[in-house]
Design goal:
elongated
């Protein structure tokens, strides 16, 4: 098993400071390395970070950031496209995305990019996402059914009112039935 990076051994507060410094475009990686090593010395931490370790970590974080930005863009695109798509199709897309995440998790474990200790936490997140999406899909389906029921009731009331008015005005029985079918959207 490879030796952990000096970055991975940093105390959480120092790691957080490293991340803050790396996000600041005004601070160079050399300056970041210097400041972090000063902080480690002040805290009495025995290790130090190298310029190359900071550079590798910055590159990895940039890759992660790029993937997150890309995922957000894709999500926004799909949300825009799927606004009017039936819920079942949205659910199918979400299921496919979750399958892809699970597959990528297994690949990362096989390639050693994720330790066996990290995997359960990531798997739990994916499971929680799946459960959450299932609940959202169920709620969306129930809402859709409720909306259809409300529309059907409104159409039924409109058809009944139209039928009464049509009868009062002397329309034939066939014309009244045709009017009712047209309002309810029932084929002739």
């Amino acid at each position: 098993m490879p030796r952990p990076s000096s970055i991975e051994t940093l105390p959480p507060d120092v790691l957080e400071r490293l991340q803050e410094l790396l996000r600041d475009p005004r601070v160079t990686q050399l300056e970041v390395t210097k400041r972090i090593n000063e902080l480690l010395a002040a805290e009495g931490f025995p290790g130090r970070v190298s310029k190359s370790a900071v550079n590798r970590y910055a590159q990895r974080m940039e890759e992660v950031g790029a993937k997150l930005r890309q995922a957000r863009e894709v999500a926004e695109m799909w949300i825009g496209k799927l606004g009017a798509v039936p819920q079942g199709q949205v659910g199918q897309l979400v299921n496919e995305l979750l399958r892809t995440l699970a597959f990528e998790l297994s690949l990362k474990m096989q390639e050693g990019e994720m330790s066996a200790e990290e995997a359960p936490a990531v798997a739990k997140i994916i499971r929680d996402m799946a459960v959450g999406m299932e609940k959202l899909e169920r709620a969306a389906s129930e809402n859709l059914k409720r909306e259809e029921d409300i529309r059907r009731q409104a159409a039924e009331e409109a058809a009944s009112k139209a039928e009464k008015i049509a009868k009062k005005r002397g329309l034939s029985k066939e014309a009244v039935q045709e009017l009712r079918r047209e309002i309810l959207g029932v084929p002739s």
